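Troubleshooting log. The previous structure file for this entry was overwritten by mistake, so regenerating from the original sequence record. Sequence copied from the archived sheet and checked twice against the printout by T.R.
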Amino acid sequence: MPGGRCLAQDAVLFGVAHRMYSERMIVQRTRFTQRRPIVEPIFTMRQVIDKTKEFGKKAYIDFKEFKAAFDSMYYNPLSLILLSVGQPDKYCKLFEKLYEETESCVQVNGKRTVTFDIKTVVRQGCAVTSELFN
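Regenerated output below.
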């Protein structure tokens, strides 16, 4: 997939993401290209959030950009750091779940390859890293 992918939705605040497991999650995938910049998917996500609020539902966002080059660090020890700065265990476990067992595939000429694991890391600048580096 060129660019990144937007799963059911990471414009969400880290603090409310713990509800993800208690709610039904709808997976929405998109891709970003030069002809389809990131502004369009963000606008779409905003509309989804507005509609879910309108119907009294909750929306959760997990956005991962895998193609861009960025400074990063491994997420495994980060949950320990979050615990050490006083974050509840449930948030730390959710944080781990957001980054573990990530899979992807490549689409060429309309056909997708077999899925493969992605070894992800946390971007510096992610909402969580402000807690980690202060």
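The chain has one domain: 5-133. Archived copy saved in two places this time.
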